[in-house]
Design a protein that fits this description.
7-stranded antiparallel β-sheet; elongated; alpha+beta
Length: 327
């Protein structure tokens, strides 16, 4: 299954402290833990001795200790100690399986299977290298598939209805034609424009906003915003938002946003509050969609020319062979 060879976000870096952390990815229970010295670890949340959850245990220096019988495993997964048998030297077969894990964009990422050939890299985020301020928002637990959330993120035609008075105006719902092209990691749209009464925290009047969208992975995307010349926003204003999604199950997911912007004055809380307002307007609509899995058959739902980006995204998922969260 190609989904298991991709990198997926599973938690904020700051959520993992001294204690192990239970997470779920692609219907699998995992435990995250951080040795005293060494990188973050991601393992199946099951002790190989008697199947207890390792997330109930504790970190002892550079080992993870099971809460049931106290077996201790080092960062390589090898059992180092069986407390009931203090003189026993565990053989290499006494080990816990491991997954690849890394940290980037303030998140912990996991790949369940190492691909035979070179696998897809972590999704890129253009705002990460632009000298802009970075703020993470979320997580949001959403009762729908990850591809449904990506498609909503790429959709401008809902602005005037779901985000009236914020990202859209019910009296100005028109979306101008835009261009879509394929990229090495997905699809990209440019020339997108939408009238927005309040496109961000500092907007004091409406403006025509230029949007760029890029799908950077099956379950991730980035948008960039550029206000029209002469708008009320400060000169040189820049803004990019990355969407990173953990497919928890076929019909549920966990969502994070990473903001990159030239706003160095506002508090983190106010920036998160604005993004929270926008996404919680989307969330009930997303959770109402049926089927929850994204249909890839072009005949299963109706389409219009304004949907060309979402149709390109669906084609991309078909070409990749994505089967998780789609139908």
């Amino acid at each position: 299954m190609i989904e298991q060879t991709l990198w997926h976000p599973v938690a904020l870096q700051d959520d993992l402290g001294a204690a192990p952390l239970a997470v779920r990815l692609l219907d699998q229970d995992l435990v995250l833990w951080r040795p005293h010295s060494g990188p973050v670890q991601a393992w199946p949340d099951r002790c190989p001795h008697r199947g207890a959850r390792l997330s109930l245990g504790r970190v002892q220096g550079d080992t993870l200790q099971c809460a049931y019988h106290g077996w201790q495993f080092d960062a390589q997964g090898l059992c180092q100690r069986v407390p009931a048998l203090p003189d026993f030297k565990p053989p290499p077969t006494h080990c816990a399986p491991r997954h690849e894990a890394c940290e980037r964009y303030g998140l912990i990422w996991v790949r369940l299977q190492t691909p035979q050939a070179a696998g897809a890299p972590l999704p890129d985020f253009c705002g990460e290298h632009a000298g802009l301020r970075q703020v993470n928002c979320g997580p949001y637990d959403v009762a729908t598939s990850a591809p449904r959330v990506v498609e909503n993120f790429l959709d401008m035609a809902h602005f005037g209805f779901v985000h009236d008075g914020w990202l859209g105006d019910l009296q100005r719902p028109e979306i101008e034609p835009y261009e879509v092209e394929e990229t090495a990691t997905g699809v990209r749209a440019h020339g997108c424009k939408a009238w927005q009464p309040r496109s961000n925290l500092h907007a004091t009047s409406g403006a025509q906003i230029g949007y760029g969208y890029e799908v950077t992975g099956p379950y991730s995307a980035v948008l960039t915003k550029v206000p029209e010349a002469g708008s009320a926003l400060p000169p040189g204003w820049q803004e990019a938002i990355a969407l990173f999604i953990c497919p928890v199950s076929e019909e549920s997911c966990r969502v994070w946003f990473r903001l990159a912007m030239a706003d160095f004055q506002s508090s983190d809380e106010s920036l998160r509050a604005f993004q929270h307002t926008i996404f919680t307007q989307d969330q009930p609509v997303l959770q109402s969609q049926r089927p929850r899995r994204l249909p890839l058959d072009a005949r299963s739902e109706l389409h219009a020319s304004v949907d060309r980006l979402s149709l390109a995204y669906r084609r991309h998922l078909r070409q990749l062979g994505i089967t998780y969260g789609v139908c």
